[in-house]
């Protein structure tokens, strides 16, 4: 029987450590120079093993920082409104929400969408970061209509995520989601602990209750942390 090529053995041993939980999400994988010394091989051999792990979604590379065990992705149905907190807790990671700013204000001049949302009332503007396992998972920028959800004005969002609060307090009857991709600008990169220019997935969502606009939110996720799933079948 032919011996297993060294790059496959390196990949297999690292994968075993990841899948066993010995190396949890966010754990730094040894630098290539460290692996070269450990296995007594050339950089090309280690690079081949690392590239295969990246392709498999098991590790992510960050410029100037090294390679890290990837976080499991949140798989969200395209037609559903995911509860980020529940999804993170369900996969066994700690969850936290950090409120960055909170402001009650009028709709901005020249912004028809904000005027529609406010419907003659005030808006509650909330910026925050969802953390998973002690690392930033998603940046959230949300507007809530205080005419439709007046209780939000006094709700404590210092730890409770606004999305979870809305799901409990304001039943929605219609939703619209738009999915796009961006490269992280300096502000987003700093808040999500990413390299500037890193690929991010963006979900822009609006919800209504019986025709009345409830909230508008933009959520920005590191590209490796989130994907969207749609399952279809034959039908009219």
Automatic annotation (TrEMBL):
Annotated GO molecular function terms are: DNA binding; DNA-binding transcription factor activity
**SUPFAM superfamilies, per this entry?**
Chorismate lyase-like (SSF64288), Winged helix' DNA-binding domain (SSF46785)
Name all HTH gntR-type domain ranges. 4-72
User: Which GO annotations describe the biological process of this protein?
Assistant: L-histidine metabolic process; negative regulation of DNA-templated transcription
- For whether the record's keyword set contains Transcription regulation, the answer is yes
Kindly give the InterPro entries that the UniProt entry links to this protein. Bact_HTH_transcr_reg, Chorismate_lyase_/UTRA_dom_sf, His_ut_repres, Tscrpt_reg_HTH_GntR, UTRA, WH-like_DNA-bd_sf, WH_DNA-bd_sf
**What keywords would UniProt list here?**
DNA-binding, Transcription, Transcription regulation
**Protein name (record):** Histidine utilization repressor
Q: Which species?
A: Caulobacter henricii
Q: What is the lineage of its organism?
A: Bacteria, Pseudomonadati, Pseudomonadota, Alphaproteobacteria, Caulobacterales
């Amino acid at each position: 029987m032919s011996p297993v090529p060294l790059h496959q053995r390196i990949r297999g041993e690292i994968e075993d450590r990841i899948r066993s939980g010995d190396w949890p999400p966010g754990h730094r994988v040894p630098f290539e120079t460290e692996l070269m010394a450990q296995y007594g091989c050339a950089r090309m051999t280690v690079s081949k093993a690392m590239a295969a792990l990246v392709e498999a979604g098991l590790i992510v590379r960050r410029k100037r920082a090294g390679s890290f065990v990837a976080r499991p992705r949140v798989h969200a149905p395209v037609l559903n409104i995911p509860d980020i907190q529940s999804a993170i807790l369900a996969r066994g990671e700690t969850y936290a929400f950090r409120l960055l700013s909170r402001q009650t204000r009028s709709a901005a001049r020249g912004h028809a969408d904000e005027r529609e949302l406010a419907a003659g009332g005030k808006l509650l503007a909330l910026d925050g970061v969802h953390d998973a396992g002690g690392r930033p998972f998603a940046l959230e920028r949300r507007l809530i209509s205080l005419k439709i959800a007046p209780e939000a004005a006094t709700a404590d969002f210092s730890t409770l995520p606004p999305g979870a609060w809305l799901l409990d307090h304001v039943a929605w009857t219609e939703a619209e989601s738009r999915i796009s991709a961006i490269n992280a600008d300096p502000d987003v990169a700093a808040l999500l602990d990413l390299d500037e220019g890193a690929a991010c997935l963006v979900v822009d969502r609006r919800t209504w209750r019986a025709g009345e606009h409830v909230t508008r939110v933009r959520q920005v996720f590191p590209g490796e942390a989130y994907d969207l799933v749609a399952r279809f079948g034959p039908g009219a």
